[in-house]
Each structure stands twice: as structure tokens, then as C-alpha cells.
Amino acid sequence: MSETANNVSGGLTRPDDLEARLFRSMGVAVAIAVVICAAVAPARVTLGVLLGGALSLLNYRWLHGSVAALLSVEPGTRPRMSLWKHAFRYLIVGGIVFAAYALNIISLPATIAGLCSFVVALFVEAIRQFYFAIIRREESF
Predict the structure, then answer these.
(1) Exposed/middle/buried for 79, CB within 10 Å: 0-12, 13-18, 19+?
(2) H runs (alpha helix) in 1-141
């Protein structure tokens, strides 16, 4: 029951294909941004985008694992993960960004832009869904 029909390719897709596409889109967005920054921006900006993008990818994977652990809990039992572990992730990301900024290695706005790679991935997925729904008159998820 965890598989749905996919009219686009004629086969079956798993629900986690969306997550894989989002992660790939994030990686591609970060790679393109780093290449563009390397060509036109100073090194601090390029390193900021690279650090922000890497932290964004790490944060996405970490959140994915946390949510999967929370959703796999049996009814009536306590989750394995406590709230402090969830907040610890943000402390690590913030600490790394603070340390790199304090050492004058990165540009803070560029790092924030790199952390926004998830937004780019969402827009890519939205455009993909609109294409399949409007142009091909099919749903793809």
C-alpha cells in the first residue's frame, strides 16, 4: 500500500521519491550557486554559500531522520528522541556559522542564502508538479 501508480513513467513510485528529489534539487542548487559565486564573487561569499548549502543539506538529512524516528513510534510508547535533541541540531548549525563568521571566513548574508537552498528545491518541485498537472494533465506523486 505504500506504492502509488505513476502515470508518467508507467511504473510504481514510493512516497519517499519526493524526498529524494528535494535533496537532489538542494544539492544541485548549492552546486550551481557555488560555481556562480566562484566566478563573480569574493572568496568569503563563495565560502559562505558553500557552508550554508552544506549545513542546509546536513540539516535536511538530520531532520529527515528525526521525523522518521518520531513517526515510527508505537502507539502508547514514548518517542526515542527528546526535545533537546531536536533543538541541539539548531545549536550545532548556529555554532558552526557563528564560529566561521567570528573567524572572518564567511560572509553572513551569503551563508544565509546558502541555507535557503531548501526554498529553491521547493520551487523546483512546484514547477515540476505544475508541469505534470497542467501540461500533461497527470499527477506525478
Answers:
(1) middle
(2) 17-40, 43-71, 83-102, 108-115, 117-130
Residues 34, 50: Cα–Cα separation, whole Å? 6
78-101 pLDDT, tens digit each: 666 666 777 788 899 999 999 999
The distance of Cα 40 from the centroid of its chain, to the nearest Å, equals 25
Tell me what percent of the residues of the chain surpass a pLDDT of 70.
79
Closest CA to 67 of 52, 53, 85: 85
How far apart, in whole angstroms, are the C-alpha atoms of residue 35 and residue 32?
Answer: 5
Q: Burial code of 32-50, b = ≥16 C-beta within 10 A, e = fewer?
A: ebbeebeeebeebbbbbbb
Bridge-based pairing of strands 4-5 and 12-13 is antiparallel
Helix (H, G, I), strand (E, B) or coil at 13: strand
| DSSP reduced 3-state for 5 | strand
Nearest CA-CA partner of 41 in 95, 114, 119, 102: 114
What's the pTM?
A: 0.77
